[in-house]
User: Fold this.
Amino acid sequence: MKKSKNRGFALIAITIAVLIIVMLYMINLTSMFGPIDKNRAYEERPWFEEQRLIGKEAFPIVQTGKKGKVVIKDSTILKGIVQRKEENRGELEIVIEPNGLATGHWQCAYEYTDSSYTISAQFKGNIDPTKIYQNENEKNPQLLYLIAKGKYEQIRTDKKTFNQWPTKQTIYVVGWLDKDYSAKGKLFLMADNDEESYGNAEYDWQTTPNTENN
Assistant:
């Protein structure tokens, strides 16, 4: 009987310890990136779709334009504004080549509570005409999907002590390109390397119609 009680207390202690670790982890994410939008954080998971990122031997990507799908005929430059919960998070630029290659970069600087942050990122990927845009309300086979992966470097600076904490981790960039060469998508700044428990901060990006590429 005494052994059963001891086991019960041990199980409770382990459960409490796990909960504390999870809470500390979430607090750390918030201090790094700001509040996490729990309703939207995992709508897309590009780290589970890395098979869509192709090697150089797979270029050029076949673009048939079937069902009105957007086709990249010339070098196309996407310039977008990045936001997180309607707060400005810098600017992004993506260049898509006629062979399907996509390369880009992003920079931003902002302040959150008692710290300031600077982030820069470089990424590389490709378009994927085989993926069809679909959500709970609609399906649009004309939109062209792009996916990219790279590294971001963040420097957090304490505004009082000026101490700095650098972070270098993986970034994923996804988006959908429309007929008028406007596009919108998401950035995912990963917070750890465990593929089973990937934590991330999610940002939205969006361009305006680019008539120069029509």
Q: What stands out?
A: The radius of gyration is 21 Å. The domain at 39-213 is CATH 2.40.160 (Porin).
